[in-house]
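User: For a reading group we're discussing how well predicted structures match intuition. Take Sugar transferase. Before you show the prediction, I'll give you the sequence so everyone sees exactly what went in.
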Amino acid sequence: MADKPLLHFEISERKILLRILDVLFVLAALFLLDVFTDFSYFRITKDFWYWTVLLIVYLKLFAYIFELYDLQKASKFDVVLKNTLLTTSVTVLFFMLTPVLSPSLPGNRFQILYFFLTITITILVWRAAYIYLIASPRFNKKVIVVGDSFDIQLIYEAFVKADPNYEIVGFVNTDGRIDVSNTKLIQFEVRDLRKAVKKYHIKEIVVASGYKTGLMLPLYNELSFLLNQGFPIKDYMQVYEDITARIPVQNVDHDFYRYFPFSRSNQNKFYLFGLRFFDILISILGLCIGLVLTPFLLLGNIVGNRGPLFYTQERIGQNGKPFKIIKFRTMVKDAEAEGPRYAEKNDYRTTPFGKFMRRARIDEIPQFFNLLKGEMSLIGPRPERPVFVQELSHSIPFYNIRHVIKPGLTGWAQVKGDYSGEEAGALEKLQYDLFYIKHRSLFLDLNIILKTLSTVLSMRGQ
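Assistant: Thanks. Here is the predicted 3D structure of Sugar transferase, as structure tokens, for the group to look at:
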């Protein structure tokens, strides 16, 4: 029916390629270095198999923390260069300093330099090949969107932001009320759909139409024909969730129950017990760190903030129950003299010392006390103030669903979304929060913890 489409790797396939080939190429390079030179610090042998395992563990861990597996960043070589240098430097350092499981330090210290350069250059060469051969725009996944009850431009922007290799070529407009004057996308007629699939090497059609009234018969017939030919036709809601890791709650209507099959982990007693046990351990550790830092923060607060070091605010917790959250002060005294308002990026009310604490997430340390009390968990939706909850629950559908689990010190929205306190930002955060509630699991929790470490180490807190 159509010409053979250009090569395209799905999101999951690209992530697997990066994770596997990073390790394989590094091990192959170290093996060749050992065979063809006098390099002897690291060898891949049966007797010292644990050297290899340790290197793989460190390489994977720090590559994740320093975002080498972030597909957006993996497509930009300048970012890859910086993240690779961070990853390999910390990997080699930890590998050398690990007792028993790593080789003894060589007498010739240049051996360590060769070890570092081999890992670094290998990853950079492979990642350059990835950008040119796999992440190149010529291998984009070309898509047509069919829709009538949504904003095509917003859909387009959301998809491109989440996955630059997901290219929406055009759309079939089934509703004359949609304003498409500002979009550069091609508008196709229903009768031309098959020709468009062939001409533009379309690999997928995304349907965001018909939730209320059903598809028009001619469009239904065209899509049925393509489907019977084995052509992929997918639901917009599912595609949006897959590529953005968010649930498009703003498009959910009377059939909302189809999109909220909450994770079984929310009722799994073993999971919840393990999570609570971990919360207690991490809160004790966090409070101990806080005790060590408090004298220094107190001094910085006297000089930079000139107000009480601690402050409390009422927030909404699980099942809508209010509680007092504890934080280190980061704003000027009487920051809300004119009434409650959202915090903003580069908020003028934040003091210079407060900006430092926010970037390092130090201001959140007192909340470990809320974790210890059981009012919060390490991972979950960030708790909001009652006045904002009341406002947002009236303007955003299903907003209160985020209160079915405990609020968290960090969460999926914090590690994935942009910082914004306005309603549009609140909607995006809710989309991430609902995704977490729907897919909550030990693996996703670990994912969030590693991304939070990346945020803290790179001082990207807001």
